[in-house]
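I hope you will forgive my troubling you with a question about protein structure. I set the record out below, with my sincere thanks for your time.
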Amino acid sequence: MPTVLQVLPRLGGSGGVERETQYISRAIAGAGWRSMISSGEEADGEAAADAGARHAALPVARRNPVQAPGTIRRLARLIAEEDVDLVHARSRWPAWLAYYAARRAGRPFITTFHGAYSTGAAPMKLKRRYNAIMTRGARVIAISEFIARHIVENYTVEPGRIRTIPRGVDLAAFDPARVAPDRLAALRDAWRVPEGLPVVMLPGRLTALKGHLALLDALARIEESVCCLFVGAGDANRAGYRARVEQRIAALGTAHDVRLTGPCGDMPAAYLLADIVVSPSLRPEAFGRVPAEAQALGRPVIVFAHGGALETVLDGETGCLVPPGDIDALADSIRQTLGASPAERSRVASAGQAHVRRNFTLEGMCGATLDVYRELLPASS
């Protein structure tokens, strides 16, 4: 029975890295293997157990070069004592630690490239070397074709080591037939969504990169009144951005009803409240979970045409691809989608659901990841 250890900074969040780690952990356990997760938080033990994994809390999230040798030794000891067969790193600093620990223990090491890492404020050459740890895996999983191209274009890695595995949508949860009407009613009441207005939704954290201001600028160009819902958590460190959003909402006056709902624990029901889901990310998304989930629920999507969105959205079939930053085009797409006939809406809904079922299922993502593990595990496993 092989044992797979996944390493990441923390597990308890709701981001794509955390969710994918838990999905893969359940798939490992479902295959009859043994799953382990190491993160930097003791509190992550419950989430790991829910995902069928044994948790080991180690200081893998602390970017402290002085502590790194000790953490590498502890991680290598864990690998040896638990007879781990393969180590899978999902973030850069934990990857540096896991790489040397796996090498010390003589175990295969793989990575998942979850984003197009920037060079940041540090000297470009130094930051690129820091990022390049994610290319040292015997296999490097890219979560989209966009990320696979980014790896080849920016780092020295043989294309034969790259495996492109798109993120998967849990179709058992994101299925309109499984969302009871009372769940929609509860959200409608909690968010005070007015009857009779079409709903335009932007799901995502309240950060500038998600494009809230771009959507508000587009709504200012639309004559028909809408209810606009910004669904996602804010951040105390970004209070200034929230204030800018609120100022822009106030500038719209009564033309549109705009709500900042905060985080939502029932995203399938949230998507079903929407007539349109908009994802105008200012920077290319590595994959773009929002468009995929919205399409799984039969909702038309409008996105800026860069990054993973070029793979998740079929322009004119499942939604609209808008030139990045083009506010007039964004407004036109919203206007046209709101004016679509019931037959056209039904066609787009069916096309979006079929697109997700063909390309972005949870089963497909998990099965392909286990296949990558099998490439490196001993034949006896």
In short: The mean pLDDT is 94. DSSP finds 15 helices and 13 strands in the chain. The first helix runs from residue 16 to 30. Residues 77 and 105 are 8 Å apart (CA to CA).
